[in-house]
Structure formats: C-alpha cells, structure tokens
Amino acid sequence: MTANASAPLTLFPLSDGLGSVSLVQHVGDDKMITNAARVSFGGDNLAPLSARDEKLIRYLLRHGHGSPFEHNLITFKVVCPIFVDRQVVRHRVGVSKNEISGRYVELEERNFTPPTFRKQAPSNRQASVEDDGTLDQEGAARVWEEAWRGAFGAYGRLLALGVTREQARGVLPLSLYTESYYTFNVRSLLHFLELRDHEGAQWETRLFARAMGELAEPLFPVTFREWRALHTGEAPQGA
Ligand SMILES: Cc1cc2nc3c(=O)[nH]c(=O)nc-3n(C[C@H](O)[C@H](O)[C@H](O)COP(=O)(O)OP(=O)(O)OC[C@H]3O[C@@H](n4cnc5c(N)ncnc54)[C@H](O)[C@@H]3O)c2cc1C
After folding, report:
1. Could you list the residue range(s) of the whole structural domain that residue 152 is in?
2. 184 Cα: distance to centroid of ligand 1 (angstroms)
3. Where are the beta strands (DSSP E) in the chain?
C-alpha cells in the first residue's frame, strides 16, 4: 500500500493511482471511550488517558461492551471499484454513506484492472487462489480491456445519442470506480474490519478495509492495540 507524500492521509490500496482511501475528519479519542463508559457511575473526568483507562478499554473490548465505542466518528473518502463498494455498503449499522450520482454527472473513465488474475478456489465457492502458473494472464487482461473499452464506449455513444445519464450508465461494468464518503464510529469500524480484513473476504475489499484501519489506528491507538491483541491472541506491547 502506498501513501501519497503530499497528502499523507490518503492511501492507495490497489496501487493503481485511482483507488484511494482518505481520512476526511474525525471526532473523539480513546479518552472519550473511557468517559462514555465511566459516566455510568459518575466517574468521567478530564484527566489525560491513564493506565486505568487503558485497562478499562481492554475490559470493554474483551467483554463485548460496545456502546462506549460509538461516541466518535471517522469519515473516509473512498474511491473504489463498484464491486468493492457493493460489499462495503452492506455494513448497515453505525455507517453513513453518500456517493457520487451517475444521474447528476457523466461518469469518469476510471477502470480497475487486476494486476494479476486469480483462479477460483477449489473448496470455498466464494474464494480465490493465486494463479499456479496455469492461467493465461495476458489473455485475461486482453478480455478485460476489450470488455471495458466496449462498455465505456457504449456509454459514450448512448450519451451522444441523447440518452439520459441515468439510463446510459446501465451498460457500465462493476470495475468502474465510484466514490463515496463513509462515516463509521469505532464500534462499527472494528466490526467492519473483523469481517472485511479477514482471509475469507475478497482480496481487493480487504485492501480497502486495511487502509481504513491504518488511517483510524493512530486516532484511537489504545483501542486498536487492545482490539488487535484480542484478535491475534497476543499480549499488547507495553500494557
Ligand atoms: C466473507 C463474506 C462473504 C459474504 N457473502 C455474502 C453473500 O454471498 N451474500 C450476501 O448477501 N451477503 C454476503 N456477505 C455480507 C454479510 O452477510 C453481511 O451483510 C455484511 O458482512 C454486513 O455484516 P453485518 O450484518 O454484521 O453488519 P451490519 O449491517 O453493520 O450490522 C452490524 C450488526 O448489527 C446487527 N444487525 C444488523 N442488522 C440486523 C437485523 N436486521 N436484525 C438483527 N440484527 C441486526 C448484527 O449483530 C450485525 O452483526 C458476506 C460477508 C462477508 C464478510
């Protein structure tokens, strides 16, 4: 994953210069999480995050106390292929989305082409496996390119004929890039990461999930450290 030096808060998960995740804004921090939990017994406070607070975050995560992790937000701008977006948008709880409209604007010529093609997994019907050298990579790239050229060309021709944008876009493929603002809270983001930065998830979606996690982690460092420790089973460093 590469970071853009002039805009350090943007990551390019697919390394094609088109797909990106940018950190737009955030509200809240680890302290707010402990204050939201401590308000139940009148113990919220303005002191800096303490070792006791860190222990509390660990306790909350380990015992499934989710609501204190909801008093914050992280907004990303996500530019991703439509097939990735279709998976991200399935996350309904604690996630807000606004997307570019192909009814308002003529869609840009932005196509994702896999740098390498994978094969269908033999056992898991949803999954893929790396090419074992038997896949005609060049042939696959040629077919992909022809399909894209044909579809995007048809889109342009329909518009030139006077067909409305909302109908003409119907010929465009899932590899077309779309762009959205997504706002998560930490609870919904961690749930998203558990499902989408997982070996069972689609590789390209996994790269986008990882980028979101990477951008959010410095904003809630203790929460992410404890959450990673919980999910890897490793003791957190320095805790
Ligand atoms: C590897 C993988 C493969 C997938 N394959 C498919 C597929 O083939 N087809 C397909 O359609 N989807 C598929 N999905 C999508 C999946 O079923 C979920 O819709 C998606 O991951 C969002 O998860 P979620 O419902 O937990 O998240 P959210 O929608 O954010 O919900 C968060 C949590 O809130 C609770 N919740 C939300 N809505 C309800 C509700 N209506 N009733 C009760 N509790 C609720 C649940 O506890 C849920 O876990 C796949 C997901 C993954 C990760």
Report:
1. 120-174
2. 15
3. 2-4, 7-12, 20-27, 73-81, 95-99, 119-120, 128-129, 177-184
